Amino acid sequence: MKRVLTMALVVLMLAGLTGCLPVASPAIGVFYTDVKYGDLATTSTAAAKEGKACAQSIMGLVASGDASVAAAKAAGGITEVSQVDHSATSVLGIIGEWCTIVKGK
Question: Could you tell me which residues come within 8 angstroms of residue 12 by beta carbon, excluding any fewer than 6 positions away?
Fold first, then answer.
């Protein structure tokens, strides 16, 4: 019984060290992910300004930030949005970052 409990504890500890931190992305790497991709575009092609807003997470336990379109618009001083893109970065599933990139005028 003691051996079973020890093995269960070891498995639980190893599972905790894997750090499952998924980031939404069209392509996910096991060790490293750094992907940029488009989400929305309008017929307007004039994109003189760009704003970026990000949220970060550590091991899926602590997360903070504002990656909203509104925050990205404010960061870039944008009033009319012509394009919304996203980027996702993950390192070993431990540290992750999700960003919204807004372009417009």
Answer: none
